[in-house]
UniProtKB/TrEMBL annotation:
Residues 1-38 are annotated as: Disordered. GO terms for molecular function: 4 iron, 4 sulfur cluster binding; catalytic activity; metal ion binding. It comes from the Eukaryota. Its cofactor is [4Fe-4S] cluster. Residues 1-23 have a biased composition (Low complexity). This is Radical SAM core domain-containing protein. It comes from Kipferlia bialata. InterPro entries: Aldolase_TIM, RSAD2/Viperin_antiviral, rSAM, rSAM_sf.
């Protein structure tokens, strides 16, 4: 789950829970019928910390994260899709963090 900061002034009157994952995004797109936007959120995301990977071969003493060697994970296309969805949702800032980027095969 990404770390997010929301804008409380952009709240709508909807009482439905905000769906998570891409299936929720697709469901919202179909229900709202708004082709110009990919997501419909109750609160606009202002800032997201996007953890690209949890793969890391270092054990830095100062690092608070304790990642294991994780195989697989999301590919380039999936990660780009998430960035595009965040941009369409009006996210103002995306901070890319996580793992050792030189271990990502693409």
């Amino acid at each position: 789950m990404p770390n997010v900061t929301t804008d409380p002034t952009s709240s709508t009157d909807s009482t439905e829970p905000i769906p998570t994952g891409t299936k929720g995004v697709e469901r919202e797109r179909e229900r709202e019928g708004e082709p110009e936007t990919d997501v419909s959120l109750r609160e606009r995301l202002v800032s997201v910390n996007y953890h690209l990977t949890k793969v890391c071969n270092y054990r830095c003493r100062f690092c608070f994260a304790h990642f294991n060697q994780i195989k697989g994970g999301m590919g380039e296309e999936g990660m780009i899709g998430i960035v595009e969805a965040l941009a369409a949702a009006g996210t103002q800032k995306i901070t890319f963090v996580g793992g050792e980027p030189t271990l990502v095969p693409w």
